[in-house]
Amino acid sequence: MSDPLLHPGSPRGLYVRTFGCQMNEYDSLRVQRLLANLGYVTVNDIGQADVIFLNTCSVRGKAEQKVHSFLGTLRRLKDTKPHLKIIAGGCVAQQLGAKLLDRFDHLDMVIGTRAVNSIGRMLQQVQESGRRLACLPDEESDGPRLDGRQILPHPSITAPVTIMQGCNNYCTYCIVPYVRGPERSRPADEILEEIRLLDESGVREVLLLGQNVNSYGRGLDENITFVDLLRRIGTETGIARIRFTTSHPKDLTDELIRCFAEVDSLCKHLHLPVQSGSDLVLARMNRGCTAAGYMEKISRLRRICPEIALTSDIIVGFPGETEHDFQKTMELLEQVRFDNLFSFRYSDRPNTRSASFPDKVDPEVASRRLLELQSFQAEITLAKNLAEIGSTRLVLVEGPSRTSNGQMTGRTTQNRIVNFQAPLSSVGQIVGVKITLAYSHSLGGDIIPA
Ligand code: SF4
Questions:
Q1: CA distance 302 to 382
Q2: Residue nearest atom 8 of ligand 1, based on CA coordinates
Q3: N or C end of the chain, less CB within 10 A?
Q4: pLDDT tens digits, one per residue of 16-67
């Protein structure tokens, strides 16, 4: 392949690989849009890439291993294509910085989580000087200002919108406060403008992102809370659906709970990570709430909004977790009956407090507990999906289904995936679907004529 530096008019390929959370997905979209301004076109085939951007995750040991192994596999590609530039961003990049350059001598650039806006300038420096660079500023490089019309590389029905970055909570197992820094909220007017632009470009649903969205507004000059922001998005934009993640149970206020009944466009789904059902474990995690406190909030949510779907995160095998603690978690699962659950086996993350905690749980015991918990939750999820049969749900049509041939796919307000026969022209519409089939991860149904 010709060197695009020698042929600046020819299109240049950008391959993006994202590991980890939705915040990383959002940053990857920003990178695509920023590099599109320099003439880069996103490619799906890594062989066509002139630049590879690897957005890394270090929240769990397994995710970090995947990043290291993917980086290792790129060496051969770089050998066959010397002009190729490989960039690592995200949490591993922020944490390891120049050490990542030392470890992988085919890596050209490391860019921290607060330097995404500088990626174009930094890439040009690397290309012009031939030097390898690490860019890890303490502050946001020039603010996460985005143009909603340009952020999405492809037309899309749903779009993420970051409303804040960072976290001040310091849960003992979590690296986020170290790699994403303290909480910083974006001004409300900027967020509203981005959502209006997304709405104009055909987006119907936004997912508001932040490590702890409930504390949105702290530190801003304007006097605004997350509840105010939600209400403003509901009344001042035309967006059809609003979702948000992630919420911390300790900051879930009654005002926010009321929004599920009062803000029409707010979807009836809340992801509320509990992490454990044992108060002893929750205290060691520094979660700032008890199992009973969590249950009380769940009861209030269901009283205000009976149709709300609830999902959560659980960490199994936290240091010191006994069989009794684990059974407390199983009891909580039985009481709440989450619609879905993301569960993980604990792993030590560098620089976190829990990494130095004694009484590590035997990995085999932790794996057995995880399996037990996941199979119990699978039964609950399937039972909940089966209970949907016969109901009629409003579904936002997102596009052709990847798994069911010739069908469309979309989501209910409770975030359940539904597949059904519908014309391509239905994409972007909210349609009624009678649910006739239920599986572990999705539903099937028949569209109801308007
Ligand atoms: S709330 Fe806790 S788990 Fe969530 S990002 Fe902050 S420190 Fe990490």
A1: 20
A2: 174
A3: C
A4: 999 888 888 888 988 998 898 889 999 999 999 999 999 988 777 777 888 8
375 alpha carbon – ligand 1 mean position (Å): 26
> Cα separation of 129 and 123, whole Å?
10
Q: How many residues does the chain have?
A: 450
Distance CA 204, CA 397 (A): 10
Ligand 1 pocket check for 168: Cβ under 6 Å = no
**Helix 254-262 vs helix 226-236: crossing angle, to nearest 10:** 20
Our answer on whether the CB atom of 21 is closer than 6 Å to any ligand 1 atom is: no
Question: Which residue type is seen at 364?
Answer: E
Compute the distance between CA of residue 187 and CA of residue 193 in angstroms, rounded to an integer: 10
> What are the backbone dihedrals phi and psi of residue 77, each rounded to the nearest 5 degrees, phi first?
-65, -45
Ligand 1 pocket check for 432: Cβ under 6 Å: no
- Which residue bears the tokens 């990626």? 119
* Nearest Cα residue to 258 out of 280, 283, 227: 227
Q: Which of 172, 175, 178, 248 has most ligand 1 atoms within 8 Å of its beta carbon, as the pocket-test mutant?
A: 248
Say how many Å lie between the CA of residue 32 and the centre of ligand 1: 27
